[in-house]
Specification:
By secondary structure, this protein is mostly loops. Helix content is 0%, strand content 0%.
Length: 16
């Protein structure tokens, strides 16, 4: 679920 471009796993949690 990386739609914000966090580049992690489920980047919707990691909004970076």
């Amino acid at each position: 679920a990386s739609f914000d471009g966090g580049g992690g796993t489920d980047a919707f949690l990691l909004e970076e």
